[in-house]
Amino acid sequence: MSERVHRPEWVPEDAGEAEGFTTNIMAGVKTAHDGLSNQGSTPVEQKTPPRRRELTVEEYVNGVRSGDRTLLARAITLVESNAAKHQEMAQEMLTSLLPYTGGTVRVGITGVPGAGKSSLIETLGLFLCERGHRLAVLAVDPSSNVTGGSILGDKTRMELLSRNKNAYIRPSPSGGVLGGVARKSRETMLVCEAAGFDVIFVETVGVGQSEITVRSMVDMFLLLQIAGAGDELQGMKKGVMECSDLIVVNKADGDNILRANAARAEYERILHYLHPSTEGWITKALTCSALTGEGIETLWNTISRFHETTLESGVFRRRRERQSIEWVHAMIEEQLKRDFFNHKSVRMNLPIVERMVVTGQISPTAAVLKLFKLFEDKDV
User: Fold this and answer.
1) Which of 116, 161, 293, 304 can bridge 125 by disulfide, Cβ–Cβ 3.0-4.6 Å?
2) Domain ranges of the chain
């Protein structure tokens, strides 16, 4: 029987050579398409996409300073990378960019889910771009505790702003960092400042006690609320209001105007019992509508007045200096944590020690001391 004819094992013995019990296999046509002959045709060569050329530090710096958006994006990606080679290169780049940083207004924006943070940023951002400002938006998306991934869909929620030549939107995963702020957000801000952006918004993940972390990296902290959602006392209980410089009640439009004004008055009353977050500034409550644009100009004027007031009083300079020190301490903690868990002896013994804690053989404190003894042993 031909190699191209297959006879199944279940064929009856008396079936003979009946074709109904055989499978005919037709060889395919080599280097051709849909049964067409390959005579005269040239086999298609599969090409591997060319890898992007690795840039030098000087090229990154020149690209950022010249306003090249592609190189700006690559520079931020370099900063966010965890690779040791990239981190070393990123720090060299940041050192060269530092003289061009610091002359911006940094505003942190947080709020309850559904308060309209992205909508407000787009409306306010378009307002600023029309007036000659250059705006960078660092939108931090929550990372999944299960997969570790993020949707990074902020550009789709800010469609008009993302197309504006004076605006730059950079979504980043939170990476599970306390406060919902991406681990490298501070350094990303420096890159954007060196690129010539004079206003930077940091949109944080939701609202909660951990969100006060954003206070350590911005000049002004804005809390966005909505009326009629029962958030007044909840916001106070969480302590977020205590670190806010401005409370904005969004969606003050249509039938919701009266409720929005009532909520603003309630926040004003609560603020009388709280200590101001910034020395020399009285925390205010405003209403606005990201949908109609009502109150947007008043909102920006208030932010500008805050900036001028803190500059004149010296609070701006002192806060920036304090933030730099806090930044150093945070980076030390991060580096120590990374070195600890990457230590060979700690990695080997961690599962064993964890099991001892679970089974009640040692206390958690004793487990920590045991692991740190291994970490501090220079001979290991």
Assistant:
1) 161
2) 101-313, 327-376
How far apart CA 262 and CA 39 sit, in angstroms, is 81
Strand ranges for 97-155 from DSSP E:
105-111, 135-141
**263: helix, coil or strand?**
helix
Pairing label, strands 135-141, 167-173:
parallel
Q: pLDDT value at position 330? A: 82
pLDDT at 2: 53
Do 249 and 287 touch, CB atoms closer than 8 A?
yes
User: In which region does residue 175 sit, left (phi positive, over 0), alpha (psi from -120 to 50) or beta (all else)?
Assistant: left
Measured in Å, how far apart are the chain's first and last C-alpha atoms? 69
273-332 pLDDT tens trace: 888 899 999 999 999 999 999 999 999 999 999 999 999 999 999 999 999 998 888 888
Q: How many CB atoms lie within 10 A of CB 30?
A: 7
- Residue keyed to tokens 């919902």: 180
The CB-side HSE value for 93 (13 A sphere, CA atoms) comes to 33
Q: Rounded CA gap, 125 and 200, in Å?
A: 10
CB-based contacts of 356: which residues, under 8 Å, 6+ apart?
A: 362, 367
Structure tokens at 33: 């398409």
Q: Is the pLDDT of residue 144 over 50?
A: no
Would you give the distance in Å from CA 170 to the centre of its chain?
Answer: 8
What CA–CA distance (Å, rounded) separates 287 from 298? 9
Angle of CA points 318, 321, 322, to nearest 5°: 85
According to DSSP, residue 229 is labeled S
Q: How far is CA 367 from the centre of its chain?
A: 34
Query: What is the DSSP-derived secondary structure letter of residue 286?
Result: E
**Do 121 and 158 form a contact (C-beta atoms < 8 A)?**
yes
Residue 44 tokens, joined: 């298609």
Fold (topology level) of 101-313: Rossmann fold (3.40.50)
Backbone angles phi, psi at 109, to 5 degrees: -125, 120
